[in-house]
UniProtKB/TrEMBL annotation:
Segments crossing the lipid bilayer: 6-22, 29-50, 62-82, 89-109, 115-136, 148-166, 172-191
Principal location listed in the UniProt entry: membrane
Keywords associated with the record: Cell membrane, Membrane, Transmembrane, Transmembrane helix
Pfam families: Gly_transporter
Organism: Devosia insulae DS-56
Domain Glycine transporter: 5-79, 91-162
Name of the protein described by the UniProt record: Glycine transporter domain-containing protein
Similarity field: Belongs to the UPF0126 family.
GO terms for cellular component: plasma membrane
């Protein structure tokens, strides 16, 4: 139950941050709604397509599209106040990353996938929506160049899988995984923890 509540909150928060990105690109209202849906539901969609898991999450639960579009219109209406909510959105995003990762792992586990696929499915669920958002906004995806994000999803997914393997009580495992994933992501933001960057600026002749 707790995981589902966090999931819905995270879906709305992701849709709202996407709407703001659309606003910075001067998109029309249709574009805002599309970007909101792609960002909030893109991770689950990519996971389902990769795993062959049908129906897709938003086809099976169409009300998720309504949540995304409603969040987008709320953002349009309250855009002037959004700058003051930067940290709440970052915290909700960190919470959502852990929750999306767990949900993605669960889908793969229910399909009987191998451990590495379970972790990858969790990671895809957590990060693919943001990658799609940045690509549609013609930007280098933040997950490839900013503070630790995909790494946090991988760690969270691994911990969750290990917990399931050792029969840790499910509610305790969910809370523990969310707490660790949330703490790691917030730490990465506060202390600007990043993966080493590859820089090559010489031309091939």
């Amino acid at each position: 139950m707790l995981l589902q509540i966090i999931f819905y909150v995270a879906i709305a928060a992701e849709a709202m941050t996407a709407a703001l990105a659309a606003g910075r690109r001067k998109m029309d209202w249709f574009g805002v709604c599309v970007l909101a849906c792609v960002t909030a539901l893109g991770g689950g969609t990519a996971r389902d397509l990769v795993l062959g898991h049908y129906p897709l999450i938003w086809v099976e639960n169409p009300y998720l599209l309504i949540i995304c579009c409603a969040a987008a219109f709320i953002t349009i209406a309250l855009a002037r106040y959004m700058a003051a909510l930067r940290w709440p959105f970052l915290l909700l995003d960190a919470l959502g990353l852990a929750a999306f990762t767990i949900i993605g792992c669960n889908v793969a586990l229910e399909m009987g996938q191998q451990p590495i696929i379970v972790v990858v499915a969790g990671m895809i669920t957590g990060i693919a929506g943001g990658i799609m958002r940045d690509i549609l906004c013609n930007e280098v995806p933040l997950v490839f160049s900013s503070e630790l994000y995909a790494t946090v999803a991988i760690i969270s997914g691994t911990l969750y899988y290990l917990g399931r393997s050792f029969d840790v009580p499910h509610d305790l495992l969910v809370l523990g995984t969310i707490a660790i994933g949330f703490a790691l992501r917030v730490a990465a933001i506060v202390w600007k923890l990043e993966m080493p960057k590859f820089v090559y600026d010489k031309e091939l002749r």
